Batch of 2 targets.
Target 1
Amino acid sequence: MKVYQFRLATVERIRVLEERLAREQLVETLNQLRKAQAANEAAHVALREMASLSGVVSMADIQWLDDQRERLSESLRICSEKVALAQSTSVDARAAWGSATKRASVLTRLDAQGFAAWREAASRDEVAQSDDLATARYRLAGAGE
């Protein structure tokens, strides 16, 4: 009997490679999301912990404090947008990875099923050959007596 060979082995290798690349892309997008969330949290903390003026203050001090709050608020808004974008990108990457995983696993299962069928056929052929050999020996032993 011929050696087992999966006809779609090349396609399976490509799909497994696609799955690995999709997984790496997902990891990268999750890292970007974590960085964006950390930057967002730092902007929140900076805005929350901004010192307020006390005592006698000048109009310039009030203007400076107001400008600082505006800059920090704008920074926080930008960080929040980056978090939203990173979340959207990670959702897309997770969906792409899930799809690639399904496509690769389908071919892997087909390969396993094909190998099992080949193994069963090989086992039947081996049993048939053994039966033929035993029958032939029996006939030769019976004919020689």
Note: Residues 41 and 139 are 88 Å apart (CA to CA).
Target 2
Amino acid sequence: MGNPATVKRKATEKRRKKYEARLGPGAYLPKDEREKVNAEMAKFEVAEKERKAKVKVVREAKKKAKKKAPKAVAAPAPAEKPKA
């Protein structure tokens, strides 16, 4: 059956995970710690948006460069010379 204390702990952890999934990270923390976590998450989100914007610009530049570059004409294969 199991240790009742362990069963209670697991139930508490499951409930905490459900709350955090619904309300966001740090939902179970005290108010001052939750505010710190939310501030860090906001900083991370801003940094991630900037990174994604830079990646998008680079990707578009590569795409344009690829379109502008003339396609290289494949050189004909050299004819085999018969061995004498």
Note: The radius of gyration is 29 Å.
